[in-house]
């Protein structure tokens, strides 16, 4: 990625996070629906230090899961990276979102993170794995 692209990505991410903090979820949903290149940024939004941004990101994924199901899969790698975040809260949120997305493409990441040091994170990972397996069995 060129330096210019990195700067563009950083400014786009800042704009999305700032909009999310202000509660502009509907606007952000529309942006994602019209430009699928935003999907890989979902992991970065979930890792934001502001709790309103993280909560908004969960709502974003829940909305996009039902309204833009084909493209939400593009978010899996970025979210999965957060399963190694230093913060147990972020790791748990990442596992939760992967469970919401419910696609078997997230299973290898979740299985690799099963031995997390934090009880609640391990529990969330197991629940996400169960949700994905149940969704896969239903389809």
Task: Explain the overall architecture.
The protein is mainly alpha-helical and 139 residues long. It has one domain (3-138): Leucine-rich Repeat Variant, CATH 1.25.10.10. Helix content is 73%, strand content 0%. The protein is globular and about 35 Å long.
Descriptors:
9 helices; mainly alpha; 73% helix; 139 residues; Leucine-rich Repeat Variant; globular
CATH class: Mainly Alpha
What is the C-alpha radius of gyration, as a whole number of Å?
15 Å
Supply the CATH superfamily name.
Leucine-rich Repeat Variant
CATH architecture: Alpha Horseshoe
Total helical elements:
9
Helix content: over 70%
Instruction: Tell me, rounded to a whole number, the average pLDDT.
Output: 93
Structural class: mainly alpha
| Poorly predicted regions | none
CATH topology: Leucine-rich Repeat Variant
Cα end-to-end separation: 37 Å
Shape call? globular
Write the layout of secondary structure elements.
Elements: H1 3-21, H2 25-34, H3 42-46, H4 51-67, H5 69-72, H6 76-81, H7 88-101, H8 107-112, H9 119-138
Helix pairs in contact: 1-4, 2-4, 4-7, 7-9
Kindly summarize this structure in a few lines:
The protein is mostly helical and about 140 residues long. The protein has helices at about 5-20, 25-35, 40-45, 50-65, 70, 75-80, 90-100, 105-110, 120-139. The protein has one domain: Leucine-rich Repeat Variant (Alpha Horseshoe), CATH 1.25.10.10.
